[in-house]
Design the sequence.
DNA sequence: TTGTATGCGTTATCAC
DNA sequence: GTGATAACGCATACAA
C-alpha cells in the first residue's frame, strides 16, 4: 500500500503538503494541489486509517454490538451516523462472548472506535459498569440500569398493556397469554416485561389472572399453534402472544378449529414482523419505532462522545398499536389506533 | 484511556516489559509478570488498536460489505474467522454508495482491515478491479468475473433448473414463471440467472417457452398472489417463483381458487425462507448453503491475505431441493431430494 | 504558502 | 531478563 511518503515523492512536495491537500486544500497553492491530486490518483493512494486515527486520537467510527439481526435499527443508525460524519460497523456477539463480560469489546475494539451501541447485548454484568467509565456506551432495546449508561428502548410493558387493553375493549374477557418459556439467565427479558403488561392490563380491568390461561412454550409458529389450540379448548375468547409468531400460530389454530375471527376469538401479537401481515385476516400487533431507535441511539452516543451530555438518560420511544382483522372485522390494513 | 506508559510507570518497569507481558509472557520473570498484570488490571488497560495495527501493519480484522441482511452467511463467517484469530465487522452499503465505485471502501477502511468480503454488493464497476489490486477481496453470492477477484456463490441457474425439472418430473407441463420485474442497472441479477434456469429446463424437456407463462412483477407476497391467479387462469399446472414470497403468494391464490395442491397445480419456490415452512402444505423450495458460504469466503480471504492463494477461484456451493407438500402429496417436512 | 520536526501507542531490534 | 530506542503513517505546531 502506498503511503503519504510515496505521494510526496511522486508529486515533488513534502508530506505536510500532501496532508494539507487532503485535509484543507484551500491552504495550498492551486498548482501543487493539482500535482498532488494527480499523484494520489496515479498511486491509488488512500490515507491509512490506523495512522490517522492514532494521530487524531479519534476514529469517527461507532460500533454496534448486536445479539440479534436488526436491520431497521441499523438503517436508522447508519442514517444518523452518516449525517454527522460517522461510520458504523456492526458485530454480533453470542451469549458466550457476552458472558465473558464485554471483555470482547475491550480486547477487540479499544481505540478502534469512538463509542459503542449495545443492542440487546446485555446480561447482568459488573464489567459493563467498568466499561462505561472508559468508553461512551448507549444501550439499545434491553438495558441495565447503570449509573453511567444511557439507553433507548421501547416500554415493553406498556406495549403489551396496550395490546391486551385493546382486546378488552373489543369485549374479550377470557384472554390467554402465549409466552416464551423461561430461558436461564434472562431475568429481565422482553417477554417477562410483556407478561407484566398483560397482568397489569387484566388487573386494571378487574379481571383475575388465571395461571391456566398462561401458556409457556419454546419459540416458533408451531409452538404457537399448539399453545393456541390448548387455550382455545379452554374457552379463551382472546389471545395475546408475546411474539407475532406465537399469535400467528394461534390464529391458524383458531381457523382450523372453525372459530370465527374476530367474533369468537380476538388475537394480538407484537413487533409487526412480516408474518403479521401475511395472515388472512391480518394480525393486530404492536409496532416499535426501530428505525428511530437506531437514530436516537447514535445521536445520544455522539453527544456523549462530544462531551455534550452531562447526565445519563433513559429514553423510551413511542409504540403503535396496529389494528387489523384479527381483532376488528374489516380492519385488514393496520390503520393506526394509538401511540404512546 | 490509559496507555502502555501508564502501566509501565505503575508497575515500575519499562514499556518494553509491559509489551512483552502482553505478547510473550514466557520471556519475562514471574514477579514482573505479576506486577505488570496487576497494574494492567488496576488501570483497566487495553492496548490501543490503532497503535498496534500501525506497528504490526495488520489488523486481524475482516470487513463484510453487505447489500442485504444475511445472518446465516454472517454466522458462518464469524465462526470461520474466530477459528483463525480474525474478527469480522460488517457494514451495509446502499446502492448509491456502491455506485460511487467502492470508493466507500477506500475512504473508510483502508488500513483498518486486512481484507473484505463483498456480499451481493456489486454492480459492474471498473473501480472494483482497481481495488482488488490493492486489498484482498472475495466476492460472495453475486459477483463480477474479474481477473483478480475470487468468488463463492450458488449456481443460481442450476438451482432454478433443478426446481423446474422437479416440477416436470411430477408430470407438470404448463409451468408458469413468476419473476421480478426488471430493476434498472441489474444486468446480471439472481432472478435473471434463475429465469435462465427455468428456460433451460423447459428446453431440455422439449417444451416450448411461452411468454404468456412468464409473469414479471414487483416483489412481495401480494404480487405473487396476483401473478399466480393470472397464471392459473391461463391453465398453468405448475408454477416456479424466483422467490419464496412469489411462490407462497401463488400457493394462496391456488387455494382460494379451490385447486388441489399438488394434484392440479405444483408450486416451487427458492431460498427456503421462513415463509416456505409456514404454508400448509409446505412449499417445495431450494436451499442454498449460506452458512457454508460465509465460512468458505472467510477461509479463501485469509488464504489470500497470507499470500497462499496463487490464482483466483470461483467456487460454487451445493444447493438442495427440499421437497414438500406443494409438489408431492404427503411430503410436508422437506426431506432432502437431491444436491448439486 | 511550504517544509521540518514532533508525537500519537505500539512492537521489535538492539544492546546490555 | 531487561531497558532504550527506532519505526509504523499521519496531522499539525512551528519556523521559514
Sequence:
Amino acid at each position: 500500500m502506498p503511503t503519504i511518503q510515496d505521494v510526496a515523492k511522486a508529486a515533488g512536495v513534502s508530506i505536510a503538503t500532501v496532508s494539507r491537500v487532503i485535509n484543507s486544500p484551500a491552504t495550498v497553492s492551486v498548482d501543487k494541489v493539482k500535482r498532488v491530486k494527480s499523484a494520489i490518483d496515479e498511486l491509488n493512494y488512500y490515507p491509512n486509517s490506523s495512522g490517522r486515527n492514532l494521530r487524531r486520537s479519534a476514529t469517527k467510527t461507532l460500533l454496534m454490538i448486536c445479539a440479534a439481526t436488526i436491520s431497521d435499527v441499523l438503517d436508522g443508525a447508519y442514517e444518523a451516523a452518516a449525517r454527522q460524519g460517522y461510520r458504523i460497523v456492526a458485530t454480533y456477539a453470542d451469549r458466550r462472548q457476552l458472558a465473558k463480560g464485554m471483555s470482547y469489546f475491550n480486547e477487540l475494539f479499544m481505540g478502534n472506535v469512538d463509542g459503542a451501541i449495545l443492542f440487546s447485548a446485555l446480561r447482568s454484568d459488573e464489567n459493563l459498569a467498568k466499561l462505561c467509565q472508559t468508553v461512551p456506551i448507549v444501550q439499545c432495546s434491553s438495558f441495565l440500569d447503570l449509573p453511567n449508561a444511557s439507553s433507548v428502548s421501547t416500554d415493553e410493558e406498556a406495549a403489551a398493556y396496550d395490546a391486551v387493553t385493546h382486546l378488552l375493549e373489543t369485549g374479550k374477557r377470557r384472554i390467554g397469554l402465549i409466552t416464551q418459556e423461561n430461558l436461564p439467565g434472562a431475568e429481565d427479558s422482553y417477554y417477562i416485561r410483556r407478561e407484566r403488561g398483560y397482568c397489569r392490563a387484566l388487573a386494571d380491568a378487574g379481571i383475575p389472572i388465571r395461571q391456566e390461561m398462561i401458556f409457556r412454550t419454546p419459540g416458533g409458529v408451531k409452538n404457537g399453534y399448539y399453545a393456541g389450540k390448548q387455550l382455545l379448548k379452554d374457552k379463551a375468547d382472546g389471545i395475546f402472544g408475546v411474539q407475532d409468531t406465537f399469535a400467528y400460530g394461534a390464529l391458524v389454530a383458531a381457523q382450523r378449529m372453525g372459530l370465527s375471527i374476530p367474533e369468537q376469538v380476538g388475537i394480538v401479537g407484537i413487533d409487526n414482523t412480516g408474518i403479521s401481515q401475511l395472515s388472512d385476516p391480518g394480525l393486530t400487533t404492536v409496532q416499535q419505532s426501530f428505525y428511530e431507535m437506531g437514530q436516537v441511539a447514535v445521536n445520544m452516543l455522539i453527544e456523549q462522545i462530544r462531551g455534550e451530555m452531562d447526565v445519563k438518560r433513559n429514553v423510551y420511544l413511542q409504540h403503535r398499536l396496529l389494528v387489523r382483522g384479527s381483532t376488528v372485522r374489516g380492519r385488514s390494513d393496520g390503520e393506526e389506533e394509538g401511540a404512546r
